[in-house]
Amino acid sequence: MSMIRDLRAAVRPSRAVSLRKDTGAYDTTRDPASVTAVVDCAVYRDGSRVETPVPLGPHEAMRLVRRDGGFVWIGLHEPTEDEFAGIAREFGLHPLAVEDAVQAHQRPKLERYDDSLFTVFKTIHYVDHDRLTANSEVVETGEVMCFTGRDFFITVRHGGQGSLRALRRRLQEDPELLRRGPSAVLHGIADHVVDGYIAVADAVQDDIDEVETEVFSPGRKGTPRGTDAGRIYQLKREVLEFKRAVSPLLRPMQLLSERPMRLVDPDIQKYFRDVADHLARVQEQVVGFDELLNSILQANLAQASVAQNEDMRKITSWAAIVAVPTMVCGVYGMNFEHMPELHWRYGYPLVLGVTVVICLGIHRTLKRNGWL
Length: 372
Prior knowledge:
The chain has helices spanning 2-11, 58-68, 81-91, 95-103, 165-172, 175-178, 182-216, 229-246, 250-258, 266-269, 272-332, 347-368, and strands at residues 38-45, 48-49, 71-77, 109-112, 117-126, 139-148, 152-158.
């Protein structure tokens, strides 16, 4: 049980920190002028990082592992095909998985090859903003590809966020966990990614609540004032991007938690169930967001139609009122010599009075019926 508690503490950062205050930015030790995509390369033996006089390259690290045991963890950021080719040959990675890792833009998945597992995770970062607009970017996506072998673990990251440096430090602080080998690192990354989903879901919920409040808050004369449909549609598109990251990952997590795998330690495999459970909860939230935004968008469009009907009724009402004096003036504007009542002394004020009375009567009737 002590190992379980240590595992949870090592791979799961505190959720008390708001995602809106988290920088979430990509942080790497890679020198922009360097010709290599390797961010970090280290050998772990008996749960501890092996210290070396000089930084190890992938080939030197693997020779050290083959000689003295342990496993190597190599982190890369957006490698080119040429940069990754040597590592692929060294570790015997499958060409199809290598192609996916280099090209990126992959669907979350789990693929098993002869001597390795290839896992793709979509990372999600919430983009903080003062106010949601029709052009606001709510979430940014990245990718983490993981190659898990018997004595190696390789991560390939794409995108400007989703750094694994803090996770590596936390795992290194728990030697008991790292003794479980590369599968412990795979679990740590899976849990780290899903915890990010939970934090993003909470932030997106705040945005949806804000839009929902604006749609149904009273406007003029107690009627709902609605909001810009473009804002709702933009938020819906961002939720759809979120959904594309979460939903496909559910099946791989279930496989890792339920099906025995040669490269996954049985003690670690049990705790993929916890990750799968949290992922399922996030997936339900995201589906609920999508349905709720559909309802909000429909309500907003219905309110726009109601507002248009209100305007048309007012225009029609005033047109009906103006039609009375227009008709009377039209009759008396005819240039006839023998018009009826033409020579009445009080005919002119009488006609004006009757016109005013009729207009006031129409106005009162329309007002009582809610048209004005």
